[in-house]
Design goal:
The protein has about 100 residues and is α/β, with parallel strands linked by helices. It is built from 3 helices and 4 strands, in the order βαβαβαβ. Strands 3-2-1-4 form a 4-stranded parallel β-sheet, covered by helices on one side.
Length: about 100
């Protein structure tokens, strides 16, 4: 198996479900993982369980997306697993 310790993967929507499962698997493979989620408590818990860096961002708020990009800009990112999303019934307006 190739050495993945020099690789960094950023997973959005990683505070539960498929995103949380993905970060656990990436960690098992030895990859450096950055956990991104909307819920501070859930995101921190997932990151703590695999000893990973974490960031909080709600992608419905564009200023939070920009802040996250600024925080991550200085590091190399080898893989971006953009898992953030949701299914909503009806129309919903954001602040943006």
């Amino acid at each position: 198996m190739p050495d993945r310790r020099d690789r960094t993967v950023v997973v959005t929507g990683a505070s539960s479900g498929i995103g949380a499962a993905a970060v656990r698997r990436f960690a098992e493979l030895g990859t450096r993982v950055v956990v991104v989620g909307r819920s501070p408590e859930q995101t921190r818990a997932v990151a703590d369980a695999i000893d990973a860096e974490h960031h909080i961002a709600d992608f419905s708020r564009l200023y939070e997306v920009r802040e996250l990009a600024d925080e991550l800009r200085e590091r190399p990112i080898d893989i971006l697993a953009d898992n953030a999303g949701g299914v909503f019934s009806g129309r919903r307006l954001t602040a943006d």
